[in-house]
Amino acid sequence: MEWNFRSAEESAAALRAGEVSSVELTDQAIARIERDDKVINAICVPDFDRARAAAHRADQARARGEDRPLLGIPVTVKESYNMAGLPTTWGMPQYHDYMPAEDAVQVSRLKAAGTVVLGKTNVPLGLQDLQSFNEIYGTTNNPWDHHRTPGGSSGGSAAALAAGFGVLSIGSDIAGSLRTPAHFCGVYAHKPTLGLVANRGMVPPPEPALPVDLDLAVVGPMARTARDLTLLLDVMAGPDPLTLGVAYDLTLPPARHERLSDFRVLVLDEHPFIPTGSAVRAGVNRVADALADGGARVERHSPLLPDLAEAATLYTQLLVSGSVARFPVEEDEQLRTRAAGLSADDESLDAARLRGMVLSHRDWISVNNRRELHRHGWRQFFTEFDAVVCPITPTPAFPHDHTPNLLERRIDIDGAEHPFFDQLVWAGLATMPGLPATAIPAGLSPDGLPVGVQLIGPMFEDRTPLRLAELLEQRIGGFTLPLSRP
In terms of CATH architecture, what is 8-257? Predict the structure, then answer.
C-alpha cells in the first residue's frame, strides 16, 4: 500500500492497529526521495541510516506496548535546526563543515515524541529569501512546476511535504517563511504566537544555542492536513526548560468554536501598499464563500482593524533593524547618509526599510511602543471577531529569480512589476504583533499552481485558527499534485 501521502493521524492509527510498521513507512519515504528528489532537491542532508535504525527502535518500542504521539512517523527538519551528527550551515559556504554537538530543543521534542527523522531540508542563504537556494546545496524546485520556487525560507520542507518525502516537517517564520512555502506548494503550516514554541538550537552557525527570546521570529509545524498541524504543534509548544519552563506549564485555551456557523471572520483582499493578484484574490474569495455557506458571519470591513499601512511600516522597520545589526561599521555609516537624505514625507516601504536599518535604540523603542498600541488594537478587534482571512503573498509561486541584490528584484502581479520585498506586508500583518496564523490551501490558479490563504487568530489562542482550518479543509478540501501518484 502507498503510504507516502497519508496524514500523520492516519499513519499513527495504522501503526497502532498493526496495519503497517515504521520500517515500512520509512522505507517507502526513502524510496520516494531517492526516486524523485533528484529534480526537486528538497532533502539537502539525508540521514537514512539513522532513520532506518530509529524506525526499527520505534517498532520494537510499540511491540513492548509503548505509545507516543508520533511514534514511528517519518518527518523532516529544516536545515537551520541544530541536529547532532549533521551539518547546520544556513546555506552559508563558510560553515559547510559546521557540526553542532547537540540537538535543537524542537529536534529533541520530535525524537521524544517518537518520530523518525529522514533528514534536513533546504534553505536560502542565511534564511534571507522567499526562495530556497544556496551555493552548498543548490536550488530547490517547486514540485508543481520545477521552473518556480517552492518559497522560503522553509521551502525545502514545503516541497518535501508536497512531494511525499515524509509526513510532517518543522520550519521557522519571520517574514512568512512557514506560510509562503505552504501557499506556494499546496500544504499547511502554522506560525505560532510569538513565544509559544521554544526556539533554542534554531540558530545560525557557529553561534551558541542559547534560550534567547527572539523578536518577530518563531518556529512551527508544517503538514499536509490541518489536523496534523495541531498534532505537531502539541508536540512543539511549550516554554524552554532552561528558562520559563522552570516555573511554567503550558495550557493552550481551546478553540473558541467547534462549528463553522459560530465563527465571526473578517475577510481582507486589499492592501494599501501592494495589489493582490487575481489568482490569490480568487482564493481568498473561495474561502470567504465556504465560510458564508457554512453559516459563519463574514465581514469585509471593520473600524476595529488596526491601520494596515502603519502596521506594514512598523513591521518593515522592526524586521530590517534586526537583520542589519551585524553589518560592518562602514556600511552603517553609508546607510545613515542615505537615510538622512530621505524626504520627511516619504512614507514608502523603501523609505521604511532604509530608516529601519539605522534605527537608534531610542527610535526602536518608539517603534516598539507603536507595536504595543497595535497589539492592544488587535485585542479589541478579537472581542468582535474570531479570525482574519487574508493573502499570504499577492501571487502564487513565481519563477526562480537569483538576482543577488534582493532590493533590485521585482515581483510581477498581473503584468505589473512591484518591489520584491513589498510582498512581505501580508506576512507582517500577523508577525509584527506576534499573532498566530495558519496557512491553508485555497485551490489552484488558472495556471494550475497552488494558492493559499492565512487565518490569523487571537494571541495565544492558536487552537482557534487551527480549528477553523480543519473546518475549512472539510469544505474546500486539500489537494495533491500529479507527483503523488505511485
Answer: Alpha-Beta Complex (3.90)
